Amino acid sequence: MPPVKKQVKKRAPPKHKLPDPLKPGEVLTDSMKRQWKVGGAVGQGGFGLLYAASPNGPGTVGPNAEYVIKIEPHDNGPLFSEINFYLRTAKQDMIRDWMKAKKMKHLGVPRYIGSGSHEGKMRLRFMVMERFGENLHKMFESAGKVFTRRDVAMLAIRLLHTLEYLHEHQFVHADIKGSNLLLGFTKDTQDQVYLVDYGLAYRYLPDSGHRDYKEDPRKAHDGTPEFTSSDAHKGVPAARRGDIEILGYVLLQWLCGQLPWEDNLANCDYLRDQKIKYLRNIPSLLKACFPEGDCPDEMRKYLEYTSGLVLNSSRYQERPDYNYLRGLFTSALKKAGWKDDGKFDFLAAKPKASKKGQIKSSTDDDVQSPQKGRSVSPKKRAAPKKKAVKRRSDDSDVSPPPKKKAAPRKQAVKKRVYDDSDSDSPSPKPKPKAAKAKAAKSRKAKSPASKSPKPKAAAAKRGRKARALSTIATQTSPGLMARGRLSNGT
Ligand SMILES: Nc1ncnc2c1ncn2[C@@H]1O[C@H](COP(=O)(O)OP(=O)(O)OP(=O)(O)O)[C@@H](O)[C@H]1O
């Protein structure tokens, strides 16, 4: 891993505003005239708020309410994009029909429930969603920054189903990562994993046909730095192969603990070059991630497939072979004698559920490594500073934010800064060797030959660091954008 330490110029986040908080008991009426009563706050995004909610009725909204309402100021962009995605892609009957046709019990795409505008002190846009539980990034941290091979295989199968659905409905997600993957809310639904946050979702296949391969440095590096695709690093419109690549990095990180380029997340050109370098030489990527040579075969094959797909610009519009990729993981499970029962090993490492089975919110306490029962200090495990750049899809069925907010080029940028600092100081250095050794031990413990017990140590969860996020919302018009070219290695 080269010790790259280039100076990074950071752009200041664009100005944005958070919505005024809603009062518990406030009633919102959606575009179908259904009324929703707001309960307590359950989350905060970059510049939106989430509340528990129930259909309007007598009494207050309880802690186990089945819905959440996400609100943003009306002239912000991301929620506008998200609602557009949900309306086109995630209507309940669409998802039901797909699952029926594929004989599936679960699909990790949240159903569209409703949306609307609300006039209060400030004009708000809101969306009603099903309520979900804990996110996989927190689970990953609680599990000592490594998931077992069995868990990764079960997750990969579910996520490839989810991506296939999105892709077959003309969209790519473009920001797949643990913090956007939520488990079901109740104990009974914790085998279900939902992909949320469609603020970056992109309609790669509009009615006019698949987008063209066009590099544009001005749009480069959208997404979450460590995971985003080579195409995104070059400013190429997001396509299906990008989601496959991003998922590959996420799975790889879950298995080995840390990606080789996490030493300099602030430098997006470095990340692009590293990813392309390693894609051209998968054995070197595996060596960097698994120094003990214990990379699961299914992961190696997944990466080899991804490399072929991504490094060849003539395969930009290709439909990924979801069956082949899922088959890698189902065969691995079968070969090892593991059942795909959705009973994730990492759940055994998670703090106890509350009385009614809901997952408790996280704390900033130390996290115990379930594999070793060892405590890992928060300092060592602090996430490096990361930010995701978001650009809105340009097809919409909902009324767009007002034009006064639009930038001249009609493009939306949703910029996310993890951690509460926006300083230019370099990211905290990860500890590659320790993480890799831990990951190797965990993989061994879960190898087909061994039958080690599931981790029992109750792990306290750490709270996520505060985030700052900004958006300028506008309409994107790729045809108007100038076409720059970077060396792309294709
Ligand atoms: N349906 C849901 N049920 C429960 N919690 C949710 C749901 N959707 C999102 N959350 C949680 O709310 C928080 C913010 O949600 P989300 O990521 O969608 O917002 P955002 O504005 O896109 O934020 P960011 O992109 O900065 O993460 C996250 O912590 C997420 O885990």
From TrEMBL:
Listed A to Z, the keywords are: ATP-binding, Kinase, Nucleotide-binding, Serine/threonine-protein kinase, Transferase
A Pfam family assignment: Pkinase
- UniProt GO cellular component terms: cytoplasm; nucleosome; nucleus
Please name the GO terms of the biological process aspect recorded for this protein, alphabetically. Answer: DNA damage response; nucleosome assembly; signal transduction
Report if keyword S-adenosyl-L-methionine is assigned.
Answer: no
Compositional bias segments (type: Low complexity):
447-458
Compositional bias segments (type: Basic and acidic residues): 212-224
Q: Care to name a GO molecular-function term for this sequence?
A: ATP binding
Please state every residue range assigned to the domain named Protein kinase.
36-325
Q: Note down the stretches annotated as region Disordered.
A: 1-27, 212-234, 354-490
Protein's name in the database: non-specific serine/threonine protein kinase
* Gene (name only): LOC118421270
